[in-house]
Design brief:
By secondary structure, the chain is an alpha/beta fold. The chain is built from 7 helices and 6 strands, in the order αβαβαβααβαβαβ.
Length: 188
């Protein structure tokens, strides 16, 4: 905390890498203290969004107030596929995404990403996710991430270019702001 208060070079606190939900009460309290002391630090979250709705809303309020963002990893639309890939249901994530999107006027507060896992996340799955997001607001930014095999999924290939192109077209049918992330992996 003292480091953030004294170092004016710190302009953003980003909670990411895994999911911050287990530490959400602590992260919220720390973030509240930071923005009480400084009005030039953004608070950002990157998560699966499955946390307690009350805590998720408090985190969103901090991001909104500070000019930060919230990025949801919407890994799959189909609940069974979500459980197979991540071990958890995605029901709460979609509920929380919709709750935040409908509670704040700032469209750029909320973004979503989907890793394009070969043989699992195809154009049909992306189209369902994009349709859900567009049903809330077609201006919400959406990033499709070229998948790189690591850790538990090290036996998977990098997302094939054809799959990326098909998924991009499916998302663009619904959303205005679609981006492909990790493009550099397509050249490997």
């Amino acid at each position: 905390m003292k480091e953030v208060e004294s170092n004016k070079g710190i302009r953003c606190i980003c909670y990411f890498g895994g999911s911050p939900e287990p530490q959400l009460p602590f992260a919220i309290r720390a973030s509240e203290r930071v923005i009480e002391e400084r009005d030039d630090v953004r608070i950002c979250w990157e998560w699966n969004g499955c946390g307690d709705p009350g805590l998720v809303m408090r985190a969103a309020e901090l991001s909104f107030k500070s000019g930060g963002i919230i990025k949801f990893d919407l890994k799959a639309f189909n609940q069974n596929l979500s459980i197979a890939l991540s071990g958890v249901s995605n029901k709460r994530a979609y509920e929380n995404f919709e709750m935040i999107a409908s509670s704040f006027e700032r469209v750029d507060l909320l973004t979503a990403t989907t890793p394009l896992i070969p043989w699992y996340i195809d154009a049909e799955e992306v189209e369902a996710i994009a349709g859900f997001i567009a049903g809330i607001n077609p201006d919400i930014p959406y990033s499709l991430l070229v998948f790189h095999p690591t850790f538990y999924m090290s036996d998977m290939p990098i997302t094939p270019r054809r799959q990326v192109e098909e998924c991009y077209r499916a998302a663009k049918r619904h959303l205005k702001r679609v981006n492909i992330g990790n493009k550099h992996l397509l050249w490997l």
